[in-house]
């Protein structure tokens, strides 16, 4: 009997999507860049691309399943330390696809509580780290695979009991002090501007450019149409 042909080794390394996304990495999920153009030349119309997910220290022990019936399911992750998910038609990742898709690993919260027969994309149970790789599978088994990704570490939630409330109190005191200093600065700036304005006004008056001169010059502008200028009020 001839041994099955080993899958082609592709140089592509999966990575977290470089796009600006909200929640790119959370406590139970992460968003992967889709393997666009990676399997062109290896895939047929009936082939599917799978994502293998493994704890980083268990990725070397992962073995490709010989067929779809042998795909390790999500529910075996705690014991087998790996599983496969996100079965996608290979055409979705071809170069002719409209746009490179983003794959969110761990987004299906329903399959954690339901015994589904098909492999699901359930939430990741711990921060990891994890490694992932893409595997192209046809009717005869694996046909091509990418390299394993670098370790992907999820976010860790902070326990409320570990949060020190003291920084909040110190922050309030800093805000009060900053407000007082800002008020003093505004008062000082007003005083300086007032002193400068008084000095400039006094200089204008000494040079004969005060209010009286302004009234006299306004009175001599008889060439201006009477409907345009407004009469000066007494005391201006």
Automatic annotation (TrEMBL):
Keywords in alphabetical order, please: Membrane, Transmembrane, Transmembrane helix
Gene Ontology CC: membrane
Sorted alphabetically, which PANTHER family does this protein's record hold? Answer: UROPLAKIN III, UROPLAKIN-3B
Checking InterPro entries in the record gives: Uroplakin-3 (IPR024831)
Q: Which residues cross the membrane?
A: 173-198
Question: What is the name of the gene encoding this protein?
Answer: Upk3b
Q: What is this protein called?
A: UPK3B protein
């Amino acid at each position: 009997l001839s041994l099955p042909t080993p899958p082609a080794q592709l140089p592509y390394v999966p990575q977290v999507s470089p796009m600006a996304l909200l929640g790119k990495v959370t406590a139970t999920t992460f968003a992967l860049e889709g393997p666009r153009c990676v399997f062109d030349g290896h895939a047929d119309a009936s082939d599917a691309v799978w994502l293998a997910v493994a704890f980083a220290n268990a990725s070397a022990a992962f073995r490709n399943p010989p067929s779809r019936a042998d795909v390790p399911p999500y529910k075996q992750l705690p014991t087998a330390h790996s599983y496969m998910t996100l079965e996608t038609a290979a055409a979705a990742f071809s170069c002719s696809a409209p746009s490179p898709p983003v794959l969110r690993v761990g987004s299906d919260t329903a399959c954690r509580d339901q015994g589904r027969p098909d492999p699901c994309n359930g939430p990741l149970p711990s921060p990891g780290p994890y490694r992932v790789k893409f595997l192209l599978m046809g009717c005869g088994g694996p046909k091509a695979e990418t390299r394993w990704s670098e370790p992907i570490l999820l976010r860790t939630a902070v326990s409320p009991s570990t949060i020190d409330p003291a920084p909040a109190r110190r922050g309030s005191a800093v805000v009060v002090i900053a407000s007082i200093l800002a008020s003093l600065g505004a008062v000082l700036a007003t005083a300086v501007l007032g002193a400068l304005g008084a000095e400039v006004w006094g200089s204008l008056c000494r040079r004969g450019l005060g209010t009286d001169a302004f009234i006299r010059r306004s009175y001599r502008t008889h060439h201006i149409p009477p409907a345009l200028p407004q009469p000066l009020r007494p005391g201006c």
